[in-house]
Amino acid sequence: MRKKQKKAQINSWKEYCEKQDKEGVWKGIYKIINKTTERHEDLPLNNQGKTLCSRESAELLAEIFYPRDKEEDDDQEHKKTRQLAETVNEQDHDDNHDPPFTITELNMVIGSFDCKKAPGSDGLTLDICSRAILRDPGVFLSMANKCLELGYFPKLWKVATVVVLRKPGKDDYTSPKSYRPIGLLPVMGKILERLLVSRLKWHVIPKLSHRQYGFMPQKSTEDSLYDLVGYIRDQLNGKKLITIVSLDIEGAFDSAWWPMIRVQLAKLGVPINLRKIIDSYLKERKVQLKYAGEEVNRNTSKGCIQGSIGGPILWNLLLDPLLQEMEKRGTIVKPLQTTSSWCLSENQHLK
Q1: Which value, to the nearest 10 degrees, does the dihedral of the CA atoms of residues 309, 119, 28, 32 take?
Q2: What's the distance, Cα to Cα, between the start and end of the chain in Å?
Q3: Cα separation of 318 and 349, whole Å?
Q4: Burial of 293 (C-beta count, 10 Å sphere; 0-12/13-18/19+)
Q5: Strand, coil or helix: 29
Q6: Of 32, 124, 198, 296, whose CB count within 10 A is highest?
Q7: Are 112 and 152 within 8 A, CB to CB?
Q8: Of residues 340, 263, 253, the one with CA closest to residue 78
Q9: How far apart are CA 320 and CA 313, in angstroms?
């Protein structure tokens, strides 16, 4: 009996590991962990020694998660970049423009989504949206291509419902830093966004630094660490001194600067029609943050919603100039994720 039980367990584990569907091995494990996690009531937050009411707590979280882009804080470099960003997309369509989206692209995008993801404020889930689109895909495709032609991303699809989640293992959940936001966007908008991001990746990924590991195809944190350790060993074998600096970029996605994104897209030669619709995608965005029974509406002027399709590749665009510059100076940079990177610099031979 025990042998049969053991054999059944082994076969079940092998079957689980061999799954090739969109769920993946680890997602199922996390799902089980999340089901056993206790739900907690939203606590009144504390700000500089003052206990806030529910409304004040929600407003504080919205202010921290989605800071405003203040021109008065610009230094000279930021002013130059901001001025350049206002002009880089002024030209009309030219020969360097992306062709219309195809039915093949649309089918691939719809098939790439996880049907269990939560919908946006309109309540339309992926199965509803996909069935509606596939009923007559030409209708949605015509609309998407018109958006590409006009350089326009619909406003209703830029409104994110923000759910506030606790960061695990924190001692004080009256502190705003113990929470993180997840933005739930309308599925229809995410389908259009993924069409755009797929095109954008095709244009920019080959031009990004080869030392970029985060959110890159066929690369991962493990690759970065492997290369890092290999580099350290090579230098130590050559009896050289190595300096390692670890950086933690707090609120990376929330602080992504839109003017620099526009400038980077132009520098990398992204077609003008694609740049214009991404420009529209970044403008007039809005969040609806819910906490402790309160809802706070806030317009955003910088940052990428955590949970958006475009956030990772846009962050890579912002990080790329730093990687390119550091490489020119002979400093080895190993970014791990959106919020951390490893920098190595070779100093001198050991005596």
Answers
A1: 130
A2: 66
A3: 34
A4: exposed
A5: helix
A6: 296
A7: no
A8: 263
A9: 10
The residue assigned the tokens 């367990």 is 9
Place of tokens 């991962």: 220
The Cβ-side half-sphere exposure at 267, using a 13 Å CA radius, reads 15
Q: pLDDT tens across 263-285, in order? A: 999 999 999 999 999 999 999 99
d(CA 54, CA 106): 43
Token couple for 121? 């404020």
What ranges make up the beta strands (E) of the chain? 46-47, 50-51, 159-166, 179-184, 240-248, 285-291, 294-300, 332-335, 340-349
Two structure tokens written together for 25? 């091995």
State the Cα–Cα distance between residues 178 and 341, nearest whole angstrom: 22
Burial (0-12, 13-18, 19+ Cβ within 10 Å), 47 = middle
Residue 227: pLDDT over 60: yes
* Distance of alpha carbon 247 from alpha carbon 227, whole angstroms: 18
Residues making up the chain, counted from first to last: 351
Q: How much is the pTM?
A: 0.81
